[in-house]
Description:
By secondary structure, this protein is α+β, with helices and mostly antiparallel strands.
Amino acid sequence: MPNGSGNGDLIIHNAGGEIKLDSQGNVDITATNVLTLDGTFITFDGPVDYDITSPQTARAPSNASPANISQVTAFDLGDNTLSAGSLAQLELEYLYDDGSPVDGIDYIVIDNEGIEHTGSLANGVATLANLPQGKSDVLLRATTQADEQQLIQLRNDFKQHLTSMLNEIRKQAAIGDAIFEQEDFFTQWMIETGARATGLYQGAKSLVTGIADLIVLGIDVNISVYSACFRMIDAVASGDKHAVKHELETILAFSQKTTSALSDAFELLLALMDDEDTRNTLARFPYDYIEAHSYVDKQRITGVMAFEILLAILTGGVGVAASAASKSKHLASANRALVNMADILKRKQLDKTISHTVSPEQPKLIERIDKPDAALQPGTNRGVTTQVSALKLVRNPALDAHYKNLADYETAYKKKLAKAINDKDSSSRIGAFKAKLTEVKGERAASAYMAKHFSKPPPPAKMELGFGPGPGFDQVWAKRDKDGNVLEYFIVEAKGPGAKLTKGAKKGDQMTDKWIDNTLASMKKSKKYQAQNQLGENLFDAIEDGDPKISKLVIEAVEDNGKIIGGKLQPLP
């Protein structure tokens, strides 16, 4: 800003015209064109000399009494602290919740006049001087556009490595199946039985051993660990970080898996679970990998469990002797892609956009973020210490199919919804796709609720019928005694958040006796889905005989900030 003595003339000059203020307080206005003020008069307070050099006429100066104007506050032209506008300073701070600075952050401040100010935080702090007062947008960035492009490529690379693992095992499976088919019936039965027993043993063994040093402790396995392995994969699919941590801590408390291996896996998951595409791929792959094995190997790998396969992917398979996945030549590449993705996603979690009003009254903008805690704290209160024989721990195939069908269904309708939104389809079509995804939430919440609340008193309820095509109920569960006899059936209607039982259908209102009878009739006589015929007959007989008991449940999903956190019972009709 120019400095002056205050004793000279102040002249504003532009395009042949000028306004001059001399040291005596006189004002000269010179214009080459007509001087106007949108058709109104210009009133001068005091004597005026004017000279019109063009052939136009002008109205004589008005002597009307002007309104009183307050005296302008005196200022010194030599004062270099004055600015052209109203400016203020802004100090940025970006901290973790424990007060430590967030490093590696660039900032972009878009001020009230739309001008960008860029730089980097030093030890979590940056100071910007002379910003125009008013609303500003502050962008804190740990990632770049190049990172976003790399993330897309890494996702594709990871999926390709998993596909290569599947193709690798399918080639082996084709050979194994061909050999199996050449054996006679009795030999096939012996191979299958032996494979299943071996698989159960390996599965139990893998649960009670460490990752780095495989130590065989026996065939008995803690039942809390067994359940936690499957619940953890379900939690990964739903994006529930707290549940994943809880299940890993349960496994750590009741097994001899190393803390470092599980903590490394959890730290990776903390970043990866925010990426929905990768999260779903991780949760689905163990089951796809098992399915890709030959008939005999599929029996053997039953006991290895999906958890061990997932852990092999997350840790690179170091010491996971029980998992065939750990021997794949593509495993290291898949793990490396995951690690690189996690690095970008960790930084992406730090990206923030904040609106802030710059003013002397608000000189600081302090932004805080939670620091990820990957430390696992095993506690003996996380489960029960009961040891059970691995031979009795047969995975519920109906529940396996239930979760796989839900994952496939959800993936398909997410794609349909995205396409409908992109194509600007009708609101009714978009709403229909959203309803399908709400249905998935209800199904997941209901199965989790049943597993949690009907596991005690023993025996625990197990799924008999889950999500899938064909006539029937949303879910059917049963408690069976040690000999396999049904003690109680549970007919479950699953509802998404806020959904209610439907009424007015031809076959009756949902969960009424009429509706249940008509549903059972459809199950019993279905020619396309004959697997449901027997269950329909069994349920019908139970209603007729009054034994075993049949309980009806309506379970509604409970949602918080878009995530399912549990379920609750709705009243029956």
